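Lab meeting, action items carried over

1. Structure of the two-component assembly. Owner: GW. Status: complete.
Input record:
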Amino acid sequence: MKILPPTLRDKKRYLAFELICEHDVTREELIREMFSCVGSLIGDVGSSKCGIRVLTFEDSKGIIRCAHTKTEQTRAAVATITHIGGKRAVVHILGISGTVAGATEKYLEGTEVFTF
Amino acid sequence: MARLQFYDLNVHSIPDGKNTPPEMAALAKHFGYAGIAITNHSNTESKPSEFEANGFEVFGGVEIVSKNASKLHGLIGKYRKNVDVLVVHGGDENINRAAVENKNVDILAHPMTPKDSGLNHVLARSACENNVAIEFNLDAIFKGRGGRRVHALSYFRKNVEIARKFDVPMIITSNAASRFDLRAPREMMALAGLFGMDKNEAIAAISTIPAGIIARNRPRSGFIREGVEVIDADDMDCDMNSEPDNELKEAGGSN
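Predicted assembly:
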């Protein structure tokens, strides 16, 4: 299928985050927990409007994508994560950017994840 | 605009919570806070802890628990001199009322009773007169699920509305019992947005209002009484001609 012209594409924001957790977490566990938390806070309709998606997740750092008008709601929804795979965890948003490259360069490269 | 200083004035440590004050402080500092207040419940065995490390401040505080309003006033008198942040554990109609009527109280924590939001026009007026901040403990939102959270959100929404109308100071805290209950300042503001606090109110509730509470309870050295302060005498001599305005502004700003 032909790709939509730029004016019709959904505008996105990319949130760089770090995960602070007692144990290592896999991408699948994080995604499952994130969708359950987002779903319980804003519901299925809200989630679809937010368009939250985990793009990358490595070494406890990653990028979440969301709709450009919903960054605050996404922040709030992600802040409701308290456990991942039965272990206590906190997601900390490091910064928001309009491109994946921007988010990676500005906020992820060279940042140390908090360790206890 | 100057960089904002963020504070979380209701954090619990051992034996109330699971972590020690330095552990809580380390994560709070990482999240970008300028300081936290350790406010353990008064009915647990714990001393107010207070220290400063690498520009991060931990303020001594207490969360007073009492079932009886007259006993509460006694406890407030007992703790007031020793702590920077005095919080009253709300949630009971009489206690809420006693707390907002006492000038020595800084924060009324989680006023929601099982029946209602715990705040009405009478209490709000007293809270405004006595400058008692109403707390929005965001742990109810990020830790709660289902009906509990729904109630918390609707009570918070109501309280924001009342506090706004009567110009009551609002404050957002994590009420953390473990370091995993802490949230970064921007996340706290986003959570506050869920129940209708606007952006400026949320910023004030996590920066300027807590800073004001600390400033009024922890006078700078040289403080004599409100409005009267000794500015370092040596500095005055040498800087007299260069920048006298700055000195005056500093003295005025601390009130």
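2. GW to write a short summary for the group page. Key points so far: The CA atoms of residues 103 and 109 of chain A lie 9 Å apart. The first strand of chain A starts at residue 12 and ends at 21.
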